[in-house]
User: Fold this.
Amino acid sequence: MRKLVFIILAFLPILLIVTIGIASKVYSQRTYIYVESVVFTDEFENEYPSDKIIRLSPGSTYQLYYKIYPELATNQKVTFYSDNTDLCTVNNKGEIVVAEDNYGVCYITLQTECGNKTIRILINVAGTKVTSIKLPAELNLKVGAQLDLDVEIYPLTATNKKIHWESSDNSVCQVDVNGRVKAVGAGIATITATSDDDESIKATTTVVVTESADINVKNPYITYVIENNTFDLTDMIEYLNPESEALIEYQIISGKQHASIEGDILTFNTTGVIKVQITVRIGDDTYSPTYTVIFRNKN
Assistant:
């Protein structure tokens, strides 16, 4: 009998530990509260109807509020998503930021980590559509001249006034993202302006480029390949007026380890490829073409 009592007493602590572990696990499972639903609300916790539309303006911000049921749900973590980040972005605090130059609609979705419960709300950003754009019919430029194109966008209250620029012939004239035109070589080219708001809305202007009254700068798309280690940079420029007051500067913009410039002479110390930029200033006009020169030692 004593032996049986001793055995029971020996196993009692083990039995007690196992019992406590099982009870704790059962209790834990019973006390974990799952998310059943989630709704959007205003800042005073008044629930939004399911067809609620939030109307915003370009460049504005908005704070989303929400409520999880039951309110004592254990895991209340959520994630927000926008289906049109070009229009609206949203962080995981529910803060919406609207683009300054865009309009339209997007949906913001909220998803709970527990149960993957999702809801979404429609964001309507008011804006004014571009209906037309206008450019001058024709431009007449001298080689080396630069000009900022004057584009008119209608209506004047249009929201998205971004313009994409393109030249039909970069050897005649080039245009940058801001609509600045550079006259490169004699000829005729067409500059096209396309509305970012609607790519079907375009305008064009004809650019007529004639030789400068002072100098003619050769086409920068030409690559010069030389076999002697010196090159006269004035070969790239033709003076049409011997008394020209044009100011000319030379600069190596890549490959400086291969060559140097002294005066008008480019001297290679090793074979290689360099790019030389020539800056020509005639009055208020500035032109800076870039040329590629390759030195191949014939020896």
Remarks:
- The radius of gyration is 36 Å.
